[in-house]
Predict the 3D structure of the following.
Amino acid sequence: MQQKTKLLQAHSPKDIATAIALLKDGQIVAVPTETVYGLAADAKNPDAVRNIFVAKGRPASHPLIVHIASCAKIHEWADHISPLASILAKQFWPGPLTLLLHKKPTVNDVVTGGLPTIALRVPQHPLLLEILETLDTGLAAPSANQHKRLSPTTAQHVMDGLAGNIAAVLDGGPCSFGLESTIVDLTGSTPTILRPGPITQQMLEDTLGMVVLAPEHHTEHVAGNMVVHYQPRTQTVLMPLRALQEYLLAPENSTKKLAIMHYSSISLKATNVLFQVMPQDKAAYARAMYQVLHQLDKAGVEQILIETPPNNIAWRDVLDRLTKASAYDKR
Ligand code: TXA
Ligand code: MG
């Protein structure tokens, strides 16, 4: 259903009240989090949650994260909770860590896409925490982008992708991490990272004092684990610096309009190429990454070439998103 999407401002108490009223009414509102903007609806209202899937064009079998106001609320959503959950929650909540636990049977199946598990997170953004406390419910919220597209790190990104499909966007400024939360599965005997993120394997192992698994391949039906995901519309290719330089020098590429996202220094000059230098610091790179990809995607180039980031634990989340952004997709 097409509707006029309101752009609400985080500094306006009236606008915050409007966002809260819309959420209470079962509408969908995009809200800022410290990771990426989320497409929020009352997680206890199955109709409202169903509308998230419609607005995003996301298959109903792909489960959503439920955002809660505090660790104390875990028990409203999960059962048979691993003792590791409270250790991780104490260390990393509020923050960019999502815990996968056993779902309480009373929680509706719509939000978990029919799965017996539930993903929970206490976000760090003060405005979202305030909203969660006022509403006294959980907010189901996937990233506020169309299915398979780039995640949004500003209110404008959300408007560009979803205006007309949702009731409102609450503009709380750019996201401070700029990359989705780490997801850790605590339903098995060994904690397992399902999606790398700002809380690294090392940080989790140091906190728990035990091994945390981080398999390369996961089940396909989990949306964030699909090979093709987080994609710009422009064809995007990931390559090491040397391959990138060779590509630029190849005669057949000399007239192509290209954009290059690199963090090493490149001495080449070319009028057909838009050079975008990225920070060498991982956190700063992550914060800028989606913003830059959104920008380059609008620049009218034929291809976006991305220098492969360092292949080490600290960069794993960035590498994961860039690999998915550049995976081949027949569109
Ligand atoms: O940082 C974030 O996590 C952001 C902000 C808005 O909180 N949210 C986000 O949601 O990235 P989404 O839906 O774009 O990605 C959530 C991932 C998906 O890959 C989904 O499949 C997985 O979490 N997930 C959610 N519930 C799950 C479950 N019960 N079992 C397995 N995976 C689950
Ligand atoms: Mg997403």
User: Anything to note?
Assistant: The first strand starts at residue 6 and ends at 9.
